[in-house]
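Bit of a strange request maybe. I'm writing a small parser for structure token strings and I need a real example to test against, not something I typed by hand. Could someone generate the tokens for this chain?
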Amino acid sequence: MKKKLNKRELRELWGETGPYSQANLIKEVRILDDSVSRTFLTVEVDINPTTFEIVFANRDHPDFTDDRAVQQLLDSAEDRRPFNGYVSMAFTGEYVEPMIIAAAELALSRAQATVIKMHRFVMENYS
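Reply from user aminoacidic:
Good idea to test on real output. This should exercise your parser:
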């Protein structure tokens, strides 16, 4: 039997018909004086508050207990409401060689899969 979400929880899913979160690949260019000094690539995820809080409360569920990515996300996320929900950094690296792009893309893909797993749990168990 699905558990019912209250109005606040429904609003904090962010989506119209289900949970909405996002994974971001950010290119940060640092400018010192009149030139670019360094460039970094960062992967962050913004998780809607309801999904984060439900999964956090169920972190001992068999779907999550052995999932290192979910556990790390739950441990490292910062509450940045009201605009960004819970934010977790999945990767950061200085862009000094092309392999950094590949590593960032891999981290982005893994972050997406982690958030989808979290959303799926909410959609299957809550309405």
